[in-house]
Design a protein that fits this description.
heterotrimer, A mainly alpha, B mainly alpha, C alpha+beta, A: mainly alpha, two-stranded antiparallel ribbon, globular, B: mainly alpha
Chain lengths: 293, 299, 382
């Protein structure tokens, strides 16, 4: 890399970096650090008082919050698995088809561009207990559509919406990764009589593992943070906290209860949880990733 | 342990039962391709269905659709859209979103290009540290910092302004990362030739780097536009005046109005379709550049 | 036009010494080729001259002025790379002229004239408006050359420019480069791993290995009088045969004996050998022959077993075993020899080399040319 360093004016170089660094410091690092600081206070508009670790003890002893953690983790797991499986299915399908690939590709990628709020609203509308289109069909097979009050159903509906929205992004990466697999491997597999599904699971998936690991991380972040709009438009955390993922709970604490210190403590905890999750994922992925030639 | 072996046996039985189904996809005849295509079309249809419904409903008057037979486009299309845009002020929301997104895209592109130029082509002390410093911000998404960020923004008097919803987004770790990866893929000898000829940084950037990065720049711009356009939480929090709100949150307002019966549900769909069009259009037009950009990211 | 001098140049990357104390002097207008195996330091040396790497120690001078600390754009050099380094989004013409505007102060009209001239010389006048992807490998290389020519630098630096071309094209470009040099007479420093390119293009050749200069000489000198075993085996294709031999004195002089043969070496000065009793004997395949094809009678003949025959069209290469040592013999293309046969071999006694077993340094070349000694001494170090 050093042979590319063709410019030696240090002041110039640093100058080029200044805008990015300054904005990062002011609007990213400083607030993050202040969040940590603020978490030790009881704060709301115009008033703040130091309370040490009491915010944190409130969190730990709050059954609601622990419930929220369970919901968030469960939600993230469902979303990550759901997205990966469905996206892999589509990617493979497009890969195996002989023509029309780019048409199918666009048709399956487009939810990426879809605003999450729209996704939430559309699904809300489709499955609305009283006026939803799908509702009558689902009820005709015996399930009472009642997710405004049934927590489990609410959870399911939100998961479906979240997965639906995210598969496009995954398909883009999976397609690129699958296309990178040399044709010779496919031909060898066919010659050896390896069936299609086996080919997918035993040959393609391992060779795509770096991408899949990357996507697990991305989808996890999405599951924790990117689904806010969907939840806000569909269930607003309810019913009774069934879809109250951490980020939503955080939002409510800050902007509905205006309990800023408490909210900051929650954001610190959220940061730690997600950070830990990502570290765990990296460690696990190191064992399972196969970087093929 | 016992339950585990029962579980394993169940899996095995399922495998045996489904193998004939899977095997159906195992040969390469024309029938096989036909089946694949049908499967693809059916699957894609399911994916696209929600939006088709949304579009159809947006043209109806009341939006109460309870069965598929009612899924024919209504006649209120033009009226609905007009109402959404003008009476309900949705055009304002779209306009705000558009301005915000364009400013963010242009700003981010400019700032990140300069940063990537510095990181790849300048000899600087502690360069790797600086790069990590920039990358680390990926771990600080809005939710982790938005409480103090809110107070900071209010304190400097930017609340409710365009500044608040554009400037904080200008530093972009992903963009710098993508551009850096792309710059690194340009062959060293090209760069060395420029050095031997004594080409300066401005000329290098404008006559060599930018023309050689066209696909990536377009792809990155689309990604940034979609990202900006889809922002929900931060605008929700920092903009109070309805008239200055962005489209995403405007939708939420529409939903509230529909729930309370002020507005027909079809209007919510109308708003949704409107909000959906710009990023979708970009995605379709620039899909090739997008794919090119994404594949760089994984390396 | 420039004379380039390297003095005690050393380049270290961490604990690896890529270039270990080399010195050389390239007079104005010379086409000098640095050749050696991969990793020998030849490209690093070129990059040091260009200014793309900075020397850990030593001095580089162009026309008596020290440039060792100067950045590349102040050295007035132009470089041609192995992968052509053409900007893919620019036309050939723009590629050629892009650097000049930064590097020198020609007017637009002057630049256009130079482009036209260079394009004519290189035969690419019709291709000037095409982009690199619309050009073949050879055409791209010529555009890269055009870029260097138009700069009119003091020194051309070429880093394996022909390595990416296919064999036939390479041969053609070689002669074009030779023609170009005859016309332009610019000092050229050329790096390659291909000894054929070195032999055919160079006024002088610098053989490098392991970061050090092994020998600097005119091509034919290198071939006939290699200074050490490395040069002897590197230059010449097919490579020189090496036999481990024992040396002993007799009344007729020194005798070298191998399990498969015993050869007298009458020209050797006994005292120059000192107390060595073993050495390595080198003889090229074309200096070994079937006895039936020998033109003159050699003092000794010996037998060998043929293991592989390689018909090359203009000659027949016999891979043989003499005793336990494998070697190659060049025979007439239509000789009737088959693998497994035992043959009688003769040799040219005037083309034998003796190398020190441990250091690889040449102890002796048998050669009846009386100019040999003076030539070696004057050319080896300059």
């Amino acid at each position: 890399m050093s042979s590319r360093e063709i410019f030696t004016d240090r002041a110039q170089g640093l100058g080029l970096l200044v805008p990015t660094i300054i904005v990062s410091i002011i609007f990213l690092y400083y607030p993050a650090v202040r969040a940590l600081g603020l978490s030790f206070y009881q704060a709301t508009f115009g008033r703040s008082s130091f309370t040490g670790l009491s915010n944190y003890t409130r969190i730990i002893s709050s059954g609601d919050y622990l419930g929220s953690i369970v919901v968030s983790v469960g939600f993230a797991v469902c979303v990550v698995l759901g997205v990966l499986v469905v996206a892999l299915y589509f990617t493979f399908l497009i890969h195996e088809v002989d023509y029309g690939k780019s048409v199918y590709l666009i048709a399956s990628i487009w939810p990426y561009a879809l605003p999450p709020a729209v996704a939430g609203l559309v699904f809300l509308f489709l499955s609305h207990p009283t006026i939803g289109i799908l509702t009558s069909y689902i009820e005709s097979i015996g399930i009472q559509v009642d997710w405004f009050s049934d927590g489990g159903q609410a959870f399911t509906v939100v998961v479906v919406a979240a997965v639906w929205k995210q598969i496009g992004y995954n398909i883009i990466f999976m397609t690129a990764a699958m296309n990178n697999i040399p044709d010779s491997l496919t031909e060898t597999a066919r010659l050896d009589g390896v069936g299609r599904i086996n080919r997918l699971l035993r040959v393609y998936v391992p060779m795509m593992s770096p991408t899949l690991v990357f996507l697990v991380v991305i989808n996890t972040i999405y599951g924790f943070f990117g689904t806010f709009a969907i939840i806000d438009t569909m269930t607003m955390g309810g019913p009774a906290g069934a879809t109250n993922i951490l980020i939503y709970d955080l939002y409510q604490t800050a902007f509905q209860s205006y309990d800023f210190g408490f909210a900051s403590a929650k954001s610190v905890i959220l940061f730690i949880i997600v950070g830990l999750l990502m570290i765990v994922q990296f460690k696990i992925s190191d064992r399972y990733t196969f970087y093929g030639t | 342990m016992v339950s585990l072996s029962i579980f394993a046996a169940a899996v095995q039985r399922t495998r045996e039962r489904t193998r004939p189904i899977f095997n159906q996809f195992d040969d390469d005849t024309e029938n096989d391709q036909l089946r694949l295509h049908l499967l693809a079309i059916a699957s894609i249809f399911i994916i696209v269905l929600p939006i088709i419904v949304a579009i159809v409903v947006s043209t109806k008057e009341s939006g109460i659709v309870t069965s598929v037979t009612e899924l024919i486009p209504g006649t209120s299309g033009p009226a609905n859209y007009q109402r959404a845009l003008f009476e309900l002020g949705f055009w304002r929301f779209m306009f705000n979103s558009f301005i915000m997104s364009v400013i963010i895209v242009v700003g981010k592109l400019f700032v990140s290009l300069l940063a990537a130029l510095a990181i790849v082509y300048y000899r600087l002390p502690y360069k790797n540290l600086i790069f990590l410093f920039i990358l680390f911000t990926l771990l600080l998404p809005v939710p982790v910092r938005f409480v103090p960020l809110y107070r900071l923004t209010v304190d400097i008097g930017w609340n409710n302004s365009f500044l608040a919803i554009t400037v904080p987004y200008i530093a972009s770790a992903t963009t710098v990362f993508i551009l850096r990866q792309h710059f690194l893929s340009i062959s060293e000898s090209l760069v060395e030739t420029a050095k031997i000829d004594g080409v300066g940084p401005v000329r290098f950037l404008t006559s060599v780097l930018i023309p050689m990065s066209r696909g990536i720049l377009v792809g990155v711009s689309v990604i940034m536009f979609v990202f900006a356009w889809n922002q929900y939480l931060w605008p929700l929090v920092i903009i109070d005046t309805e008239g200055q709100q962005v489209a995403q949150v405007g939708l939420s307002i529409l939903r509230g109005q529909a729930s309370s019966g002020e507005v027909a549900w079809s209007m919510v769909m109308t708003g949704s379709v409107l909000t959906l069009v710009p990023p979708l259009a970009l995605l379709i037009i620039f899909r090739n550049a997008l794919i090119e950009t994404f594949t760089i990211q994984q390396k | 036009m420039s004379k380039v001098t390297l003095t005690d140049i050393k380049k270290e990357f961490g604990d690896v010494t890529a270039v270990d104390n080399i010195s050389m002097s390239v007079p104005n207008g010379e086409f000098i080729v640095i050749v050696g195996p991969s990793g020998c330091g030849k490209s690093t040396t070129l990059r040091l001259i260009a200014g793309l790497e900075s020397a850990s120690e030593g001095d580089i001078r162009m026309n008596e002025q020290s440039v060792v600390d100067a950045p590349p754009d102040e050295r007035d050099v132009a470089m041609v790379f192995q992968n052509y380094a053409l900007y893919p989004h620019m036309s050939a013409r723009r590629n050629i002229t892009f650097g000049i505007r930064s590097a020198s102060s020609f007017t637009d009209a002057e630049i256009d004239d130079r482009v036209k001239e260079a394009a004519d010389i290189l035969g690419i006048s019709e291709l000037l408006d095409r982009k690199p992807q619309a050009l073949s490998g050879g055409e791209r290389q010529r555009v890269a050359l055009g870029r260097a020519i138009v700069r009119d630098p003091d020194v051309f630096l070429m880093d394996e420019p022909l390595s990416n071309l296919d064999a036939k094209l390479r041969i053609r470009m070689r002669s074009e480069l030779a023609k170009l040099h005859r016309e332009l007479q610019t000092t050229t420093i050329y790096v390659t791993h291909d000894q054929t390119e070195a032999m055919t293009l160079a006024d002088r050749v610098v053989v490098m290995n392991d970061g050090q200069v092994q020998q600097v000489d005119k091509p034919q000198q290198l071939y006939d009088y290699p200074k050490n075993r490395f040069v002897a085996e590197f230059i010449g294709d097919p490579a020189m045969n090496i036999f481990p031999v024992k040396l002993r004195s007799s009344e007729q002089g020194i005798i070298a004996s191998h399990e498969g043969f015993t050869i007298p070496l009458p020209d050797i000065d006994r005292s120059s050998l000192g107390s060595t009793t073993t050495a390595e004997l080198g003889i090229r395949p074309e200096d070994l022959m079937l006895s039936t094809e020998a033109e003159t009678e050699a003092p000794v003949q010996f037998s060998a077993e043929v293991t592989v025959t390689e018909p090359l069209g203009d000659s027949l290469l016999l891979e043989c075993l003499i005793g336990e040592t494998a070697c190659r013999v060049q025979a007439n293309p239509r000789s009737r020899v088959s693998p497994g046969e035992s043959v009688e071999l003769s040799y040219n006694p005037e083309r034998i080399h003796l190398f020190d077993e441990t250091t690889g340094e040449t102890i002796h070349h048998t050669d009846s040319s009386s100019q040999r000694v003076t030539q070696i001494e004057s050319v080896t170090q300059s």
